Amino acid sequence: MNLKVLFNPTQQHFEEIKKWLQEEDNSSNEGFFCQIDTIENSYRKNRLIVIVKDDVAIGFLSYYYYNRIVNIEIAEVKPNERKKGYCKKLLQLSFSWFVKKGALVAQLFCAPASSEKIWKRMGFINFPDEIIKEPRIYLYRILVGIADFYTYKNEIELIELWDIEDYQNEVPPKWRWEIKRQEKLNKLINPIIHPCSDEWSVAHKIGSEIREKRIMKYFDMKKHDGGYFLIVTELER
How many CA atoms lie within 13 A of 185 on its CB side? Predict the structure, then answer.
């Protein structure tokens, strides 16, 4: 058996996927044939990853990027090839490839909702309820090593985050991270990545001096990527 994950699948691979999705839809009214236009669009835009067994497509993942966040649209393995570890291999190799392309986080919403347990087995977790106020189940997984929380009282250079809008410094921050840069660079040794509402407050602080404090959507775009995350990968001194 020859098993591979392809990041540039052929038209033949797409046609094989289309065929078994249609068969699944006809036999059980399940699967993602109803989304075949989205899958084909991903293939045309080179955003379709396929796992093949003996060069025949048995699973796929459709995605798109938003800054350094990869959004997983659809993922499925052919019904008679499930529970053999193929989905795990497809996702693990896809995540490694995303990181090489510069992605830091993967996110998705569960459709169907029953897929939540599958994604959680792959290391995804729920967004906090206060960030995404929708009935759909949103999950995320951080793909890289990240900075640890800072819990000491020393006044050093920090990024601080509140889970509220706090312009007047009325309450202490809920999360803090020490800024640790690579030698002679502004780039951090490990990025700061945390789920975040765009209305939460973020501060860059050096000692007792607050260099900048704003709600996340207005925080310097060099320091974060927006969306549902605070992402800090480099910071001017």
Answer: 10
> Do 19 and 112 belong together in one domain?
yes
H/E element holding 42? helix 36-44
Paired strand residues for 201 = 215
Q: Which residue has the tokens 């996110």?
A: 107
Helices 36-44 and 11-28 cross at an angle (nearest 10°) of 170
Cβ atoms < 10 Å from Cβ of 127: 18
Residue 147 lies in a domain: no
Token pair of 167 as six digits: 């312009």
Verify that 169 and 123 share a domain, yes or no: no
Q: Are residues 11 and 126 in the same domain?
A: yes
Share of the chain above pLDDT 90, in %: 78
What residues of the chain score a pLDDT lower than 50? Answer: none
Q: Which of 142, 172, 207 is the last residue of a domain?
A: 142
